[in-house]
Amino acid sequence: MKKRPSWKIMVTVVYALVLREVQARIGSHRLGLFWMLFEPMAHIAVLMFVFTYIRLRSIPGMEFPVFLLTGLVPFFMMRNIALGLMGAVDANRALFVYKQITPFDTFIARLIVNFVLMSCVYAILMFVLGFWFGYDISIDRPLYWMWAIFVGITFSFGLGLIFCVVVEAVPELAMIIRLLFLPLYFLSGVIIPSWMLPQRFIEWALWNPYLHVMDSIRIGVFKHYPLTYGIDLNYAVKWAVVTLGLGMLLFKLRERELLAQ
């Protein structure tokens, strides 16, 4: 019998894990698939309603709902990828008795599920804004926009690998890491753009790679998005490379301990 290439085995395993992740989120309910999409959409729609119509926020020269959506969905996707990887090994530990399944397969599966889910949410909400409410939802520089999102995903994937190893060693840190994403949410330009932040504050905020990613995503979307001095996507690229490299190194060093838990 001809032995299958390792990459084909990995593709098959990841596909099966993706189906398992989706099944776990859908559950046994008939409307499970609807709720899987509706829950994040409702969350984002409520935030958009609050900030657009109750708080009456506005961004000069831009349509605020589109501005908000182009920040909320990418940030939640990146947050979910980082936190999802942190718990991937524990959630799939029973499967590691099969030698074909490795922890890294579970990381890839969670990355795919979160990416596809939030991409669907983004497409549906953009469709509603564009064709129902008549907002301009065009993307001015699609390649730059996709590159900025890719950098953010890579950075989050690296963070997720590091979190997974760290939490394996000190489980109590899981809650602290989750809480850290709350200030990051407000400090990454998701709601308030970097060019509206006080000058004394922006100098500190520029250390945050997510701020560079969020602003770069919007630079790709809006034709006349104001540029903030210091915002540089290459800075986030460097962070993404370092965190991914460090995460892979830590994972390889601690892989046996992860499986032995």
Strand content: under 5%
Q: Which percent bin holds the helix content?
A: over 70%
Poorly predicted segments? none
Tell me the distance between the termini.
Answer: 35 Å
As a whole number of angstroms, the C-alpha radius of gyration is: 20 Å
Shape by Cα distribution: globular
Count of helical stretches: 10
Structural domains: how many: 1
| Average pLDDT number | 87
* Estimated structural class: mainly alpha
| Helix and strand sequence | HHHHHHHHHH
Number of strands: 0
Describe the biggest sheet? none
Pfam families: ABC2_membrane (PF01061)
Membrane topology: Multi-pass membrane protein
Keywords: Cell inner membrane, Cell membrane, Membrane, Transmembrane, Transmembrane helix, Transport
Main location: membrane
Describe the protein's architecture and organization.
The chain crosses the membrane at residues 34-54, 66-87, 107-132, 144-170, 176-197, 233-251. With 261 residues, the chain is mainly α. The chain has one domain (6-259). The chain is built from 10 helices and no strands. The longest helix has 30 residues, at 103-132. The chain is globular and about 65 Å long. It starts with 5 loop residues before the first helix and ends with a helix. 34% of the residues are buried.
Features:
mainly alpha; 10 helices; globular; Transport permease protein; membrane; ABC2_TM_bact-type; transmembrane helix
